[in-house]
Amino acid sequence: MKNTLTRRIFLLLLMILPACAPAAQPLPLTAVSADSATFTPTVTATPPATRPPYAPGELVDYLAQTGDTLPALAAHFNTSEAKIRAANPVIPQDATTMPPGFPMKIPIYYLALWGTPYQMIPDALFINGPAQSGFDLAAFINSQPGWLKNYSEGLQDGRKSAAQVIDLVAQNFSISPRLLLALLEFQAGALSAPTAPADGYFLQYRNAGYRGLYLQLVWAANTLNNGYYGWRRGALTEWKHPDGSLERPDPWQNAASVALQFYFSRQFSDVDYAGKVNADGFAKTYLTLFGDPWQTPPHISGSLNQPALMLPFEPGKSWNFTGGPHTGWGKGDPYAAIDFAPTGVSACSATGEWVVAMADGLVTRSVEDGLTVDLDGDGDERTGWVLFYLHLALDSRPKVGETVRAGQKIGHPSCEGGESTGTHVHIARKYNGEWVLADGPLGFNLAGWQVHNGARAYDGTLTRFSRTVIASTSAEGKSAIRADE
Predict the structure, then answer these.
(1) Structurally, how many domains does the chain consist of?
(2) Are residues 371 and 277 both part of a single domain?
(3) Residue 8 pLDDT
(4) Which of 106, 123, 394, 477 has a CA that sits 20 to 30 A from residue 259's CA?
């Protein structure tokens, strides 16, 4: 009875909270022209952090932000999930994401060297999600006077315009193209300056292996995702600046702002860094280009749940669980993907085994960089649940625009696309453009098999009832699983 009442109260909060979600720090606008995307912002510098040295376990007020989970909040506030639950008994035991705006009391255990509490952009504008639908990237670039509209670059599959390069990176890493444009303007005057930086280090990552627009953006997107999803899963709680100084993100921060702080901390001295993460820094450039970011609604609701998914191989077949939680795309975070390989297939051998669709959906992309299946069927992988399959052989795949059914054959596992040392399939999920972590409150559930992290990337387990399967990149017997167990 108590659990039922708790859930009813929590669900009632879910219905009423969207209207009172927190406004994080909107900046005032003047002289806004929607047609020309020209804005004259009125901004003031943010004062330094003034958080007091709280007593151990002191309860502090917190309004849940989009995508918050209890394990991550426990890491941010240096406390435990059990202590948060004790202070907020209304939260059900099976809660996943917190409702944005949900008022909480959190027992905090103070740590020194917190960074700025200033929030630059909301999470919904960090990811390549619903807010980016309808944005004409090429048209926006061409409407600006800067060097970017005349820039092109030769990639492995031919010469591409700047818009095509940005779109490719935005799509693969699932990062907002507007965010990438704002960084290019902020750091290289891409939309306003007549000439590009001659050295090709457009985002000031001065590594000879990353010269040119595409590789600079790849580095930037990967670094941003490491910050965003590191904060999301509670793994990124501090970092060192180039001068050796330590910074811990403010516990009240949002994932997008932490990602940008982490990004700028990789490049600049402490003095330069401070000017980039306050209201007169990157946030001012974003505001000038795209308007007040804090009018964007949250992209993740409270109590989000994964739709039913089956294992990605045929019933009766035995495959190996070869990769526990690891990056969905790129290096490091997000730990959104897991791997399976047919039993008995070695190295990069061809195989007649089939990967099958884990749920019904519409194929929206089928390239070497992966096959995506849109579960809401609207044809836009920036909205709703999307399944991502990597390392499928390019032959025998369904075509873009084709509807697939759960259990339908969608390709042979291989080493094609990305980096691979053996024939396998790499699977990951996105919701409204955000990579969904493979472990945690919204972890993978594949026909009852639950995924859990290991000590490092690619380690981990699958558990169903009393049986646990241990991931092994060597495809050992302990990693074998049958789809109909």
Answers:
(1) 3
(2) no
(3) 58
(4) 106
